[in-house]
Amino acid sequence: MPSKKDGAGAAAAGKRQEQFRQRGDLQILRSGDLSDCIVMCGSDPDGMFTTHKVFLASRSGWFRKKMVENPQHDAAGKQVIEIDSHSPAEIALVMEFIYGAGMLDAIENSSNKSFIVTCADIYLLGRDFDISSMAEYAMNHLGKYLNTKLKEICVLPAKRARQAPVKHKFIQHLKFGIRRVDRAQKSGRGRELYKMLVDFVVAGREVILRNEDFQSSISQEIVPPEFIKEVMLTQYRGRFQTEWMKNVAVKPETLPNRLVKCVVCGMDMDLLGGEGAHYSPWSEGLLMSMYTEVCCSRCAQDEYNQDDDGMISWSVFKGDEYAYDQDGAAMRLRNVFN
Protein backbone atom coordinates (compact mmCIF):
# COMPACT_ATOMS: atom_id res chain seq x y z
CA MET A 1 0.00 0.00 0.00
CA PRO A 2 1.46 3.41 -0.95
CA SER A 3 2.56 5.54 1.98
CA LYS A 4 1.04 8.95 2.75
CA LYS A 5 4.30 10.52 1.62
CA ASP A 6 4.14 8.72 -1.73
CA GLY A 7 0.51 9.71 -2.13
CA ALA A 8 1.27 13.35 -1.39
CA GLY A 9 4.14 13.32 -3.85
CA ALA A 10 1.95 11.85 -6.58
CA ALA A 11 -0.75 14.42 -5.88
CA ALA A 12 1.75 17.27 -6.08
CA ALA A 13 3.14 15.90 -9.33
CA GLY A 14 -0.36 15.62 -10.74
CA LYS A 15 -1.11 19.20 -9.75
CA ARG A 16 2.07 20.46 -11.41
CA GLN A 17 1.23 18.51 -14.55
CA GLU A 18 -2.24 20.02 -14.70
CA GLN A 19 -0.86 23.52 -14.13
CA PHE A 20 1.58 22.97 -16.96
CA ARG A 21 -1.24 21.77 -19.19
CA GLN A 22 -3.22 24.95 -18.45
CA ARG A 23 -0.26 27.33 -18.84
CA GLY A 24 -0.35 30.54 -20.81
CA ASP A 25 -3.21 30.86 -23.30
CA LEU A 26 -3.68 27.17 -24.08
CA GLN A 27 -7.19 27.15 -22.66
CA ILE A 28 -8.42 29.72 -25.16
CA LEU A 29 -6.76 27.75 -27.98
CA ARG A 30 -8.55 24.57 -26.93
CA SER A 31 -11.92 26.27 -26.50
CA GLY A 32 -11.72 28.34 -29.67
CA ASP A 33 -13.50 31.22 -27.92
CA LEU A 34 -13.35 34.53 -29.82
CA SER A 35 -11.49 32.87 -32.68
CA ASP A 36 -11.00 34.95 -35.83
CA CYS A 37 -8.55 32.77 -37.78
CA ILE A 38 -8.58 29.19 -39.07
CA VAL A 39 -5.27 27.47 -39.80
CA MET A 40 -5.68 24.55 -42.19
CA CYS A 41 -2.99 21.90 -42.59
CA GLY A 42 -4.04 19.63 -45.45
CA SER A 43 -7.36 17.77 -45.44
CA ASP A 44 -6.74 15.95 -42.16
CA PRO A 45 -9.38 16.88 -39.53
CA ASP A 46 -6.56 17.04 -36.98
CA GLY A 47 -4.95 19.69 -39.16
CA MET A 48 -7.56 22.39 -38.49
CA PHE A 49 -6.72 24.88 -35.73
CA THR A 50 -9.14 27.51 -34.48
CA THR A 51 -6.85 30.40 -33.59
CA HIS A 52 -6.57 34.14 -32.94
CA LYS A 53 -4.82 36.58 -35.25
CA VAL A 54 -3.51 38.72 -32.41
CA PHE A 55 -1.59 35.77 -30.93
CA LEU A 56 -0.27 34.49 -34.25
CA ALA A 57 0.74 37.86 -35.65
CA SER A 58 2.43 39.07 -32.48
CA ARG A 59 4.44 35.89 -31.92
CA SER A 60 5.25 34.62 -35.41
CA GLY A 61 6.72 36.64 -38.26
CA TRP A 62 5.61 33.98 -40.74
CA PHE A 63 1.94 34.16 -39.72
CA ARG A 64 2.04 37.97 -39.61
CA LYS A 65 3.34 38.06 -43.19
CA LYS A 66 0.84 35.42 -44.34
CA MET A 67 -2.11 37.41 -43.01
CA VAL A 68 -1.12 40.39 -45.13
CA GLU A 69 -0.21 38.48 -48.29
CA ASN A 70 -3.19 36.07 -48.39
CA PRO A 71 -6.26 37.66 -46.80
CA GLN A 72 -8.63 34.73 -47.45
CA HIS A 73 -11.79 34.44 -45.32
CA ASP A 74 -14.46 31.80 -44.81
CA ALA A 75 -18.24 32.32 -44.80
CA ALA A 76 -18.13 33.35 -41.13
CA GLY A 77 -15.60 36.08 -41.87
CA LYS A 78 -12.66 34.29 -40.24
CA GLN A 79 -9.32 34.52 -41.99
CA VAL A 80 -8.11 31.21 -43.39
CA ILE A 81 -4.42 30.29 -43.59
CA GLU A 82 -3.52 27.11 -45.46
CA ILE A 83 -0.23 25.29 -44.78
CA ASP A 84 1.01 22.51 -47.06
CA SER A 85 4.67 22.50 -46.02
CA HIS A 86 4.28 20.94 -42.58
CA SER A 87 2.35 18.11 -40.92
CA PRO A 88 -0.54 18.61 -38.48
CA ALA A 89 1.72 17.34 -35.66
CA GLU A 90 4.31 20.00 -36.47
CA ILE A 91 1.72 22.78 -36.60
CA ALA A 92 0.34 21.53 -33.28
CA LEU A 93 3.81 22.07 -31.76
CA VAL A 94 3.93 25.59 -33.18
CA MET A 95 0.51 26.38 -31.73
CA GLU A 96 1.46 24.90 -28.36
CA PHE A 97 4.53 27.12 -28.23
CA ILE A 98 2.69 30.28 -29.33
CA TYR A 99 -0.16 29.78 -26.86
CA GLY A 100 1.71 27.85 -24.17
CA ALA A 101 3.92 30.51 -22.62
CA GLY A 102 6.89 29.63 -24.79
CA MET A 103 7.21 26.05 -23.50
CA LEU A 104 6.59 22.61 -24.97
CA ASP A 105 5.64 19.34 -23.33
CA ALA A 106 8.00 17.50 -25.72
CA ILE A 107 10.90 19.39 -24.13
CA GLU A 108 9.81 19.76 -20.52
CA ASN A 109 8.62 16.14 -20.27
CA SER A 110 10.78 14.38 -22.85
CA SER A 111 9.93 10.84 -23.99
CA ASN A 112 12.10 7.98 -25.24
CA LYS A 113 12.56 9.72 -28.58
CA SER A 114 16.04 11.10 -29.14
CA PHE A 115 16.09 14.41 -27.28
CA ILE A 116 18.57 15.77 -29.84
CA VAL A 117 16.09 15.01 -32.64
CA THR A 118 13.29 16.64 -30.65
CA CYS A 119 15.33 19.81 -30.11
CA ALA A 120 16.32 19.87 -33.78
CA ASP A 121 12.71 19.54 -34.93
CA ILE A 122 11.58 22.35 -32.64
CA TYR A 123 14.49 24.58 -33.63
CA LEU A 124 13.65 24.14 -37.32
CA LEU A 125 9.99 24.93 -36.70
CA GLY A 126 11.07 28.12 -34.97
CA ARG A 127 13.15 29.03 -38.00
CA ASP A 128 10.43 28.08 -40.51
CA PHE A 129 7.74 30.13 -38.79
CA ASP A 130 10.00 33.02 -37.81
CA ILE A 131 9.60 32.46 -34.06
CA SER A 132 13.04 33.35 -32.75
CA SER A 133 12.14 32.50 -29.16
CA MET A 134 11.19 28.96 -30.24
CA ALA A 135 14.54 28.41 -31.97
CA GLU A 136 16.38 29.82 -28.94
CA TYR A 137 14.32 27.63 -26.62
CA ALA A 138 15.37 24.51 -28.52
CA MET A 139 19.02 25.62 -28.66
CA ASN A 140 19.14 26.33 -24.93
CA HIS A 141 17.65 22.98 -23.98
CA LEU A 142 19.91 21.11 -26.37
CA GLY A 143 22.89 22.89 -24.82
CA LYS A 144 21.80 21.88 -21.31
CA TYR A 145 21.28 18.30 -22.43
CA LEU A 146 24.67 18.01 -24.12
CA ASN A 147 26.29 19.73 -21.16
CA THR A 148 24.92 16.99 -18.89
CA LYS A 149 26.12 14.23 -21.21
CA LEU A 150 29.55 15.81 -21.57
CA LYS A 151 29.90 16.00 -17.80
CA GLU A 152 29.10 12.30 -17.60
CA ILE A 153 32.06 11.71 -19.90
CA CYS A 154 34.54 14.42 -19.04
CA VAL A 155 34.15 16.42 -15.89
CA LEU A 156 32.44 14.39 -13.19
CA PRO A 157 34.12 11.85 -10.88
CA ALA A 158 34.51 8.61 -12.80
CA LYS A 159 32.26 6.68 -10.41
CA ARG A 160 29.31 8.96 -11.14
CA ALA A 161 29.99 8.81 -14.87
CA ARG A 162 29.92 5.01 -14.78
CA GLN A 163 26.62 5.02 -12.92
CA ALA A 164 24.93 7.29 -15.47
CA PRO A 165 21.96 5.56 -17.16
CA VAL A 166 22.84 6.74 -20.70
CA LYS A 167 25.59 4.53 -22.14
CA HIS A 168 24.60 2.62 -25.28
CA LYS A 169 21.16 4.23 -25.52
CA PHE A 170 22.72 7.68 -25.60
CA ILE A 171 25.04 6.68 -28.46
CA GLN A 172 21.97 5.60 -30.42
CA HIS A 173 20.22 8.90 -29.74
CA LEU A 174 23.36 10.81 -30.69
CA LYS A 175 23.49 9.07 -34.08
CA PHE A 176 19.84 9.87 -34.78
CA GLY A 177 20.43 13.48 -33.77
CA ILE A 178 23.49 13.85 -36.00
CA ARG A 179 21.60 12.49 -39.01
CA ARG A 180 18.65 14.83 -38.39
CA VAL A 181 20.82 17.91 -37.99
CA ASP A 182 22.99 16.93 -40.95
CA ARG A 183 19.94 16.81 -43.22
CA ALA A 184 18.81 20.19 -41.94
CA GLN A 185 22.12 21.94 -42.49
CA LYS A 186 22.39 20.49 -46.01
CA SER A 187 19.07 22.19 -46.79
CA GLY A 188 20.46 25.50 -45.56
CA ARG A 189 19.04 25.30 -42.04
CA GLY A 190 20.30 24.16 -38.68
CA ARG A 191 23.95 25.15 -39.07
CA GLU A 192 24.05 26.30 -35.44
CA LEU A 193 22.88 22.91 -34.18
CA TYR A 194 25.34 21.18 -36.50
CA LYS A 195 28.27 23.11 -35.08
CA MET A 196 27.12 22.35 -31.54
CA LEU A 197 27.08 18.59 -32.21
CA VAL A 198 30.49 18.79 -33.88
CA ASP A 199 31.92 20.51 -30.80
CA PHE A 200 30.28 17.93 -28.55
CA VAL A 201 31.76 14.95 -30.41
CA VAL A 202 35.19 16.62 -30.47
CA ALA A 203 35.02 17.15 -26.72
CA GLY A 204 33.93 13.58 -26.04
CA ARG A 205 35.89 11.92 -28.82
CA GLU A 206 37.96 9.61 -26.61
CA VAL A 207 34.73 7.93 -25.51
CA ILE A 208 32.35 8.52 -28.41
CA LEU A 209 34.66 7.73 -31.33
CA ARG A 210 35.92 4.58 -29.61
CA ASN A 211 32.44 3.22 -29.06
CA GLU A 212 32.14 0.11 -31.28
CA ASP A 213 28.57 0.85 -32.32
CA PHE A 214 29.48 4.41 -33.25
CA GLN A 215 32.52 3.19 -35.20
CA SER A 216 30.34 0.72 -37.09
CA SER A 217 27.91 3.52 -37.95
CA ILE A 218 30.79 5.59 -39.30
CA SER A 219 32.01 2.68 -41.45
CA GLN A 220 28.52 2.12 -42.85
CA GLU A 221 28.05 5.88 -43.33
CA ILE A 222 25.03 5.87 -41.04
CA VAL A 223 26.81 8.77 -39.40
CA PRO A 224 27.40 11.09 -42.40
CA PRO A 225 31.04 11.19 -43.59
CA GLU A 226 30.84 14.98 -43.88
CA PHE A 227 30.08 15.21 -40.16
CA ILE A 228 33.08 13.05 -39.20
CA LYS A 229 35.27 15.11 -41.53
CA GLU A 230 34.13 18.27 -39.74
CA VAL A 231 34.88 16.65 -36.37
CA MET A 232 38.42 15.80 -37.48
CA LEU A 233 39.07 19.28 -38.87
CA THR A 234 37.66 20.99 -35.79
CA GLN A 235 39.82 18.83 -33.54
CA TYR A 236 43.02 20.00 -35.21
CA ARG A 237 41.99 23.60 -35.68
CA GLY A 238 42.36 23.89 -31.94
CA ARG A 239 39.28 26.03 -31.42
CA PHE A 240 35.59 25.57 -30.74
CA GLN A 241 32.83 26.61 -33.12
CA THR A 242 30.23 27.60 -30.52
CA GLU A 243 30.06 29.86 -27.49
CA TRP A 244 28.27 27.03 -25.70
CA MET A 245 31.34 24.79 -25.88
CA LYS A 246 33.67 27.58 -24.79
CA ASN A 247 31.63 27.95 -21.62
CA VAL A 248 31.54 24.20 -20.98
CA ALA A 249 35.23 23.54 -21.61
CA VAL A 250 36.51 25.64 -18.70
CA LYS A 251 34.98 23.35 -16.07
CA PRO A 252 35.76 22.12 -13.47
CA GLU A 253 38.38 24.50 -12.09
CA THR A 254 39.01 22.31 -9.01
CA LEU A 255 39.79 19.09 -10.89
CA PRO A 256 43.63 19.27 -10.68
CA ASN A 257 43.47 19.37 -6.87
CA ARG A 258 41.65 16.07 -6.57
CA LEU A 259 42.83 12.56 -5.93
CA VAL A 260 41.15 9.93 -8.09
CA LYS A 261 41.51 6.18 -8.28
CA CYS A 262 42.85 3.98 -11.04
CA VAL A 263 39.71 2.62 -12.69
CA VAL A 264 41.10 -0.93 -12.68
CA CYS A 265 42.97 -1.53 -9.42
CA GLY A 266 41.64 1.37 -7.34
CA MET A 267 45.07 2.83 -6.51
CA ASP A 268 45.04 6.53 -5.60
CA MET A 269 46.37 8.69 -8.45
CA ASP A 270 47.79 12.19 -8.04
CA LEU A 271 46.49 14.28 -10.94
CA LEU A 272 48.97 17.05 -10.20
CA GLY A 273 51.95 14.71 -10.42
CA GLY A 274 50.57 12.74 -13.32
CA GLU A 275 53.69 10.60 -13.82
CA GLY A 276 52.75 7.07 -14.79
CA ALA A 277 49.08 8.00 -15.16
CA HIS A 278 47.25 7.34 -18.42
CA TYR A 279 44.54 9.92 -19.08
CA SER A 280 41.44 9.59 -21.16
CA PRO A 281 42.01 13.15 -22.41
CA TRP A 282 39.83 15.91 -23.75
CA SER A 283 42.95 17.70 -24.95
CA GLU A 284 46.66 18.02 -24.34
CA GLY A 285 46.05 21.30 -22.55
CA LEU A 286 45.32 22.10 -18.92
CA LEU A 287 44.50 19.31 -16.52
CA MET A 288 41.18 20.95 -15.77
CA SER A 289 40.22 19.99 -19.32
CA MET A 290 41.07 16.30 -18.78
CA TYR A 291 38.70 13.46 -18.13
CA THR A 292 38.50 12.39 -14.52
CA GLU A 293 38.93 8.72 -15.42
CA VAL A 294 42.56 7.62 -15.13
CA CYS A 295 44.42 4.34 -15.17
CA CYS A 296 47.76 3.60 -13.51
CA SER A 297 50.72 2.66 -15.71
CA ARG A 298 50.88 -0.95 -14.47
CA CYS A 299 47.22 -1.66 -15.27
CA ALA A 300 47.42 0.19 -18.59
CA GLN A 301 50.22 -2.10 -19.78
CA ASP A 302 48.25 -5.24 -18.94
CA GLU A 303 46.80 -6.62 -22.20
CA TYR A 304 43.73 -7.74 -20.30
CA ASN A 305 42.81 -4.09 -19.72
CA GLN A 306 43.23 -3.07 -23.36
CA ASP A 307 40.88 -2.96 -26.32
CA ASP A 308 41.72 -4.57 -29.65
CA ASP A 309 43.51 -1.37 -30.67
CA GLY A 310 46.04 -1.85 -27.87
CA MET A 311 44.76 1.13 -25.92
CA ILE A 312 43.18 1.23 -22.48
CA SER A 313 39.60 0.04 -22.37
CA TRP A 314 37.78 2.87 -20.59
CA SER A 315 34.65 1.90 -18.72
CA VAL A 316 32.42 4.84 -19.64
CA PHE A 317 29.54 3.66 -21.86
CA LYS A 318 30.66 0.03 -21.44
CA GLY A 319 27.41 -1.02 -19.81
CA ASP A 320 27.37 -4.29 -17.87
CA GLU A 321 30.84 -5.36 -18.95
CA TYR A 322 32.16 -3.79 -15.74
CA ALA A 323 31.30 -4.03 -12.08
CA TYR A 324 32.51 -1.71 -9.34
CA ASP A 325 33.46 -2.24 -5.73
CA GLN A 326 32.31 0.02 -2.89
CA ASP A 327 35.22 2.40 -3.44
CA GLY A 328 34.40 2.85 -7.10
CA ALA A 329 37.28 0.79 -8.49
CA ALA A 330 36.48 -1.06 -11.71
CA MET A 331 36.70 -4.83 -11.90
CA ARG A 332 36.37 -6.44 -15.32
CA LEU A 333 33.82 -9.24 -15.30
CA ARG A 334 35.30 -12.33 -16.93
CA ASN A 335 32.98 -14.44 -19.08
CA VAL A 336 30.17 -12.02 -18.37
CA PHE A 337 27.79 -13.69 -20.81
CA ASN A 338 28.49 -17.27 -19.66
From TrEMBL:
InterPro entries the UniProt entry points to: BTB/POZ_dom, SKP1/BTB/POZ_sf
Chain ranges of the BTB domain: 35-99
Organism superkingdom: Eukaryota
Transmembrane segments: none
Protein name: BTB domain-containing protein
